[in-house]
Amino acid sequence: MSQKILVIEDEVQICSNIQEILSFSDFKTLTANNGVDGLRIAKTEKPDLICCDIMMPDLDGYGVLKALREDPATEFIPVILLTARVERGDLRQGMELGADDYITKPFSPEELLKAIEMRLARIAKPILIKQKYEQERQNNAKLKQEIQVNLQKLQESQQLADMRNEVLEKLLQDLGNPLSNINMAVHMLKQAQSDIERDRYLNILQHEYEREITLLNEIKNLQALLTPENAKILQKFNLLYNNK
After folding, report:
1. Residue 136 and residue 133: Cα distance in Å, rounded?
2. Angle of helix 109-190 relative to helix 195-225, nearest 10 degrees?
3. The whole model's pTM is what?
4. CB atoms inside a 10 Å sphere around CB 31
5. What would the pLDDT profile of 68-86 be if each residue is shown by its tens digit?
6. Do residues 23 and 102 both lie within one domain?
7. Residue 117 within a domain
8. Is the peptide bond before 106 cis (omega within 30 degrees of 0)?
9. C-alpha distances in angstroms, 21 versus 87, 114, 179, 180?
10. Strand ranges in the chain using DSSP code E only, listed in sequence order
11. Count of domains forming the chain
């Protein structure tokens, strides 16, 4: 996108020459032949840089510069003053009002273009720094988000491991109870004196066997169920195995 330069110059031929020089260098050029029109265009078009003659009727270059610097919308637009006067007092007045550079008439195309490019480069540097800062800020925010996601995954993995350990411990305890009852029933069955006693202990063995099979089936079901995704749902609704 071409940078936009406003030329405020009351001498029509000089204004046309400057416009031609800038057009050959791919700048988009706006022109005004008096300070009043130049100030109006500056406020509506917001050019990237202004080249302004000092000696103009009605509103001279100093008046234009003063008005530009007093308006928040235009106060930071670089202004290069064009002058045929080179007295020290004139230079000081322009600098005190906020001029960015002076070019003394007559000037060469190279001198004009160099002054413009230097001023535009000074504008571009803070913009590039700001863009770089914004990019770094976005990268840091993205990295922070990735770290938070990874920490959450790590925490969920640890919670899942804790859940599995808790479930396993409870199941081992539950598996031990039928085995104790089976061992006791076998021992008592050996000492049974009647068919009634033997039947009672056989019923105990049958019952505890069925309990053991049920618990083994629960282990298989939990193994398939206790994935990270399902664990979060089970934890949310308090459906995980507990030690009650």
Report:
1. 5
2. 180
3. 0.52
4. 19
5. 999 999 988 999 999 886 6
6. yes
7. no
8. yes
9. 27, 12, 101, 103
10. 4-8, 28-32, 49-53, 79-83, 101-104
11. 2
